[in-house]
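Render this sequence as a predicted structure.
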Amino acid sequence: MAEEPIQNAQPVVPHTTTSRLSEPPKTPSKGRNYWIPRIFTYILMALPFLYFLYLANSVTGDLPSLEEIERPKTVLSSEMYSADGKILGYIHKGESRIDVDLDQVSPHLINALLVTEDKRFYEHSGMDGQALPAVLFGFLKDREVRGASTLTMQLARNLYKNIGREKSLARKIKELIVAELLERKFTKQEILRAYLNTCNMFGNAYWIQTTSKKLFKKDAKDLSIQESAMIVALLKGQGVYSPYKDPEKALERRNTVIALMANDGMITAAAKDSLLKTRIVLAEELPDVEIDLAPYLKERVRLFMDEWGPLNGGYNVYQDGLKIYTTIDTRLQGYAEQAVKEHLTVLQKSFSNNISGR
């Protein structure tokens, strides 16, 4: 006989302890090992912002005022003229600075300058966008910013000492800001003129006119193509490319500038080939001119003007660019000095005999 199912049977559940799987998860302890990675992450995230603040403070703290930008002050040497309109000399302290207009500068010099230093000068507004990547790449590569400076940026550095000369991104940003302001305030011709009259081109010969006189004993308007190229070559490094210290390097750099002028169509290929063969002829190889005449008179004039200036309008003969006209005629002065040289040997011998009682 089959067994009948037990009615209302309950399943048997074995007696067990409470399972750990049912316990709530424990919160991990926030100890030192937890916070160190987070702090390090926060620091990394804050670094760009901190650097931006540092850079902004470095830039804005040293920028020239708007008044300084609108009315830049420059130091000018005073010029001394003869009665027949010749330059007898310059009065200055330390640095000789003679201001000239663009029409008093050789077009060859201007062409050489633009093709070498700022080919897109008339196209940009202070910053050359095509050259900007070179600035950033140079800084990221070795923390130094090289090249890519427009003439306006170089002018900003020449005019305002507080921009500084150190090789840094902060200095470049200062130059960019001031260059943009200069471009808004002045025309391209005014900027070019200011650059030529503020740039230290060779030793203590500041500006184009003084450099031209020092190197070639001629006015800036009379510079030839090869002479213009030599002066522009010095902008890359007057210590390295000095024609006095290293004539070979100077000639090589000068020829590079001439080649750039030819590539840009400023001179013909035939002219380039001819000019590359010319040697560098410096002032020391040229005959003396009026600037060597009447040294005693020029010294007396300097002493007189040094006293006269402050009492008559507060002029400073060493930095106000005065034009001083004398009564000396260079032709007569030249004849007189030549006569003294010819007879000095005889006169000196006669004088010595008189002193010794012979």
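Summary. The chain has 13 helices and six strands. The first strand starts at residue 78 and ends at 81.
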